[in-house]
């Protein structure tokens, strides 16, 4: 099958298939007499494997390792589990970082009056030096504190 058919059958774009070939993640496809790429069912199966791994957030280097383990029938499942566990740890760190960012931004949004005045704690935080910034909300210098009732 040609690259378009392989793309449709695997769910991987033709551009990504060419990229995976170029980087060596997958072997170069056989070529027809007229020079077109010719993919087998085995190639499509491998592309589906890659697509599913990408859907789970694995990086290309990790997918390369997974492909190596997949092809190695003497592998130990412990190796696969270790790689997957490392990926879970990295995802959890990313989630924690995103939650921290969302919390900091929520704090700033809650501190912003969102009215006709120009003062904006969000912009003030963005302009401050990150080394000095703890993302706590501070009043504008010289501003009078607003009393809540």
Automatic annotation (TrEMBL):
GO biological process terms held by the UniProt record: positive regulation of DNA-templated transcription
GO molecular function, one term: DNA binding
InterPro entries linked: CueR, DNA-bd_dom_put_sf, MerR-type_HTH_dom, MerR_fam, Tscrpt_reg_MerR_DNA-bd
Stretch list, region Disordered: 126-149
Ranges in a coiled coil: 81-108
UniProt KW Zinc keyword: no
Record-linked CDD domains: HTH_CueR
SMART domains recorded: HTH_MERR
Any Pfam family matching the protein: MerR
GO CC term (a single one): cytoplasm
Domain HTH merR-type per the UniProt entry, residue ranges: 1-69
PROSITE patterns linked: HTH_MERR_1, HTH_MERR_2
Keywords of this entry: Coiled coil, Cytoplasm, DNA-binding, Transcription, Transcription regulation
UniProt subcellular location: Cytoplasm
This protein's record includes keyword Acetylation: no
NCBIfam families: CueR
Protein name listed in UniProt: Transcriptional regulator
Organism expressing this protein natively: Devosia limi DSM 17137
């Amino acid at each position: 099958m040609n690259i378009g058919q392989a793309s449709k059958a695997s769910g991987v774009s033709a551009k990504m298939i060419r990229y995976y070939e170029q980087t060596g993640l997958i072997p170069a496809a056989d070529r027809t007499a007229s020079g077109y790429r010719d993919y087998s069912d085995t190639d499509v199966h491998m592309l589906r494997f890659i697509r599913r791994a990408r859907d789970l957030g694995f990086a290309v280097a990790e997918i390369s390792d997974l492909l190596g383990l997949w092809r190695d029938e003497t592998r130990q499942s412990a190796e696969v589990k270790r790689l997957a566990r490392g990926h879970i740890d990295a995802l959890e760190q990313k989630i924690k970082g995103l939650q921290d960012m969302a919390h900091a931004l929520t704090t700033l949004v809650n501190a912003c009056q969102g009215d006709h005045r120009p003062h904006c704690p969000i912009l003030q935080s963005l302009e401050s030096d990150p080394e000095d910034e703890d993302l706590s909300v501070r009043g504008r210098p010289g501003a009078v504190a607003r009393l809540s009732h």
